[in-house]
Automatic annotation (TrEMBL):
<keyword id="KW-0677">Repeat</keyword>
<feature type="repeat" description="WD">
    <location>
        <begin position="302"/>
        <end position="341"/>
    </location>
</feature>
<feature type="coiled-coil region">
    <location>
        <begin position="328"/>
        <end position="362"/>
    </location>
</feature>
<dbReference type="InterPro" id="IPR001680">
    <property type="entry name" value="WD40_rpt"/>
</dbReference>
<dbReference type="InterPro" id="IPR019775">
    <property type="entry name" value="WD40_repeat_CS"/>
</dbReference>
<feature type="repeat" description="WD">
    <location>
        <begin position="120"/>
        <end position="163"/>
    </location>
</feature>
<keyword id="KW-0175">Coiled coil</keyword>
<dbReference type="InterPro" id="IPR015943">
    <property type="entry name" value="WD40/YVTN_repeat-like_dom_sf"/>
</dbReference>
<keyword id="KW-0853">WD repeat</keyword>
<protein>
    <submittedName>
        <fullName>WD domain-containing protein</fullName>
    </submittedName>
</protein>
<dbReference type="InterPro" id="IPR036322">
    <property type="entry name" value="WD40_repeat_dom_sf"/>
</dbReference>
<feature type="compositionally biased region" description="Basic and acidic residues">
    <location>
        <begin position="16"/>
        <end position="33"/>
    </location>
</feature>
<dbReference type="Pfam" id="PF00400">
    <property type="entry name" value="WD40"/>
</dbReference>
<feature type="region of interest" description="Disordered">
    <location>
        <begin position="1"/>
        <end position="33"/>
    </location>
</feature>
Length: 381
């Protein structure tokens, strides 16, 4: 007897039907000049060689290079994986693109030719985060996995150099400390964070690495999973967590909390526009929020996505957001355009404007795969 994965063929509650109808209606909006892709988007990264381009990782197993400002927005597509891609890193030196995958490996491609390169095998579970940098002329690739380990690889040969252990649950984020980094030095400082809510620090060299066990050890700034960490130009650490906050941890005060930004749901990403003085966050409630960096006051909420916003990237006072809804949206942080967006939102609430609509494209995952993906994204206990 044939089986169906169509959710419409199963019993659903009134709440489910109501939510489905709400999302279907919202999916037709054109806010943020959306680039519609056929699959859920799990990660985004800026192109280090061209500040008009980004890379996005899809649940369908492809990476796309996109220019949101031109008519033919998808510039290149990188294929090979048959499982969702969770994370991206692009090499400044070798021109390679790396993507962590559900299949427990890291895939790589030559950016220009789009040909698949080394495939890095060694983790026992999903690869959730990747990081690439150079030390003493040698390019290193770091990968963090749901198996609670960090593996350090030779990014060129694919050789597994060594493994770092310390986390008790899955690792969700890696960040290179920019104030301590010098490619000519023997070591770099890398921060890691994950489902165990801990932020740990590591000395990473070409042949060996070790954990930094100076206080605070580990750094405990959140109540549950830390999904994202990155540094600003002052060397302070920004974090996004499933405890519904984004935070700034002060380097000068030994990683104590400097500021906290509250949300109604899980916070997936945080970006800092230092030119404009904005803190921008991605939230599971489908919205992109803009806070005043100095005061912490909520300035504006960009509403356009109709499912969870998974990641952000900044490009010249524009923030690019990607979502489970399969869209890439662009929001301006320039003062005049931000003021215009705020006025348009107020007019819409008062019924003064009629929203433009576009057709929604369906995703490529089966019902079972969507449930597995949702469970993975919500692993925050």
């Amino acid at each position: 007897m044939s089986q169906s994965n169509d959710p419409g063929h199963f019993f659903q509650t009134d709440a489910w039907h109501s939510e489905t109808a709400r999302r279907a209606a919202k999916s037709k909006n054109d806010k943020g000049n959306p680039v519609k892709l056929p699959s859920k988007i799990l990660a985004v990264a800026a192109d280090p060689h061209d500040d008009s381009l980004i890379y996005v990782a899809e649940a369908a197993g492809t990476v796309k290079r996109i220019n949101p400002e031109v008519e033919k927005k998808v510039v290149a597509t990188y294929t090979g994986p048959e499982a969702p891609l969770t994370s991206l890193a692009i090499s400044h030196k070798s021109g390679k693109l790396f993507a962590g995958c559900w299949d427990k490996t890291i895939w790589s491609w030559d950016v220009k030719s789009r040909r698949p390169g080394q495939r890095f095998r060694g983790h026992a579970d999903f690869v959730k985060t990747v990081l690439v940098f150079t030390l003493q002329g040698r390019e290193l690739l770091l990968s963090g996995s749901q198996d609670a380990t960090i593996i350090v690889w030779d990014a060129v040969t694919g050789q597994r150099l060594y493994t770092l252990k310390g986390h008790t649950r899955g690792i969700l984020a890696l960040a290179l400390d920019p104030l301590e980094y010098d490619p000519a030095k023997e070591e770099a400082i890398v921060f890691s964070a994950g489902s165990d809510r801990e932020i740990r620090r590591w000395r990473v060299g070409v042949s060996a690495g070790k954990e930094i066990k100076e206080e605070p050890f580990p750094i405990l700034a959140h109540e549950t999973s830390v999904d994202l960490i990155h540094f600003d130009s002052d060397g302070d650490l920004w974090t996004a967590s499933a405890d519904k906050t984004a935070k700034c941890l002060s380097r000068a005060r030994n990683w104590e909390e400097d500021s906290s930004f509250e949300h109604p749901d899980y916070t997936r990403d945080v970006a800092v526009d230092e030119d404009g003085g904005w803190v921008v966050t991605a939230c599971r409630d489908e919205n992109v929020r803009v806070f005043e960096k100095g005061s912490g006051k909520l300035h504006h909420v960009f509403e356009g996505h109709f499912e969870e916003v998974t990641a952000l990237v900044l490009l010249r006072q524009r923030v690019i957001s990607v979502s489970i809804d399969g869209s890439v949206r662009t929001w301006s942080l320039k003062a005049q355009e931000l003021a215009k967006a705020i006025q348009e939102a107020e007019d819409e609430k008062e019924g003064k404007v009629e929203e433009k609509v576009e057709e929604k494209k369906e995703g490529l995952l089966t019902l079972e795969e969507e449930e597995e993906l949702a469970a993975l994204l919500e692993d925050s206990d």
